[in-house]
Amino acid sequence: MKKNNKSEVKRFSAGRKVEVVLRVLKGESLDGVSREIGQPASRISEWRDDFLRAGEASMKVREPDMHDEEIRKLKETIGGLTVALEVTREGVRKWKAGLPFVPGRWQS
Known about the structure:
The protein is mainly alpha-helical. Helix content is 65%, strand content 0%.
């Protein structure tokens, strides 16, 4: 990477930042890496902190288990029953009001 003037900002891709952070986490000197890549140590420290926070957040994600599929199916069933109940209520409302009710229009 070419050395920029002080007024120019060096941009690093996410992958390059990860490489830099891993070097520091593996024990390379923060100051040495900072000098080598031309970035302030404070910026590399921010990258490291962001990297570690993201790693921690990813560990908090619960892995799906066999109950998740059952819950999904039950929610789907409840949704279908809710729609059927609303159609029935609408039919009863129309029947009580003496209005025509065409059940076929409500079926999918």
